[in-house]
Amino acid sequence: MNVRDTIVAISTPPGRGGLGIVRISGSQARAVAEHILRFRRPPRWQPWSATLAELPDTEGHTVDQVVVSFFQAPRSYTGEDVVEISCHGSPVILRYCVEQACRCGARLAQPGEFTLRAFLNGRIDLPRAEAVRDLIEATTLYQARIAAQQAEGAVSRRLAPVKQQLLDLIALLEAGIDFAEDDVPVPSGAEIAARLRPIEEELRQLARSFDYGRLVHDGLVLAIVGRPNVGKSSLFNRLLEQDRAIVTEIPGTTRDLVSEPASLEGIPVKLLDTAGVREGSDPVEKLGIQRTLQAMADADLSLVVLDLSQPIEQADLALIERARRQGRHLVVGNKSDLPRRAEPPQLDAIVSALTGEGIPELRRRIVEAAGPSGAFELQPGFITNLRHAQLIQQALAHLEKAGEGLHTLPHELLLLDLYDALKAIDTLTGATTAEDILHRIFSTFCIGK
Fold first, then answer.
1. Rounded to whole angstroms, how far apart are CA atoms 259 and 104?
2. pTM to 2 decimal places
3. Which of 233, 281, 343, 388 is least surrounded by Cβ atoms within 10 Å, i.e. has the fewest?
4. Would you identify the CATH topology of the domain 136-215+385-430?
5. Residue 65 to residue 87: CA distance in whole angstroms
């Protein structure tokens, strides 16, 4: 990949639409556009302006009337000259426009190459570049809002003072070593420890925020389990806010897993409605029950649903115990609209899938049980990216190693650990990142971004 090439790609989603955008970036962007388009008068190429043009075919016949926008380097998305051609959203027209641009000297962009150039040209740092991808892939408005904050530099702004404090400490130790003969004071172990403490605390807070950030980024799988006829499918439909699963009074109506994506408090969730668990003789029902138990084992969280209008049975208690052994779970009492006859040993929420009573509270309890939120969701710049979390843990490990050797190691060796911590932070922000890592990150983008 030659980053000096002029590149072109369709930047709008595949398929037909009202508009489609072809983006050209590079030093020859204007020349390519002038070759493939027909302007009524020679274009003046005023930055941040738009003009009308025509896209002709090879015989000179007009194929489409387009709007051409120009963004001059370095004040563009990529930091290069960028021309965006807004066509009508016909796949045939968009492909033809790209083909003509390639014939006139442009190259088809690789996935993520526009954003890669923005990073290489200093327009954005690596966390902001990765947030662009997360924003494109967001499935809930909350995900989009968090990604937009990170694309604006929320993570980088939280790391900047940490890095500055670490640089100040490194400079202090370096000065004490290099200018010892000039009576430059050498910091004591207590002073170094005092300077390390706020750096480590901020990094620990960021590391802890990943428990909630991973939930926001990846979502969770939620299995709804219980005996037949306790209202699992009704609860599934209520959480989904649509009638997706068949609901009848006949026990065993659900024979297989039914899955649907949903959003709970802005968190993407894959809901699983499962077959009722009981001692069945029907081979098909037995297979459905096996899949229910497997879904419990694989899910991030299980909802064990009880029928509060009926006495608790041994099968209910067995399911609660299985869920407890497997990890995160909530016990939900359903049918609160009917006279209560059950007194289970554990009850985390009471709802009526029929009337909707208690559903908003259940939604909150699900998110709380799946991952801690609290102060994290109120802070801009919490960590949602596994790569970021791993690098922060690496930086913390090096700082802790330096702290352990404060009173036993010379400052030259402490500096090695501090520099390793700095390297981890710089790798996170992209200040020092190997080429193969950059390729792996940007190859996950769509081509037009």
1. 49
2. 0.76
3. 281
4. Four Helix Bundle (Hemerythrin (Met), subunit A) (1.20.120)
5. 7
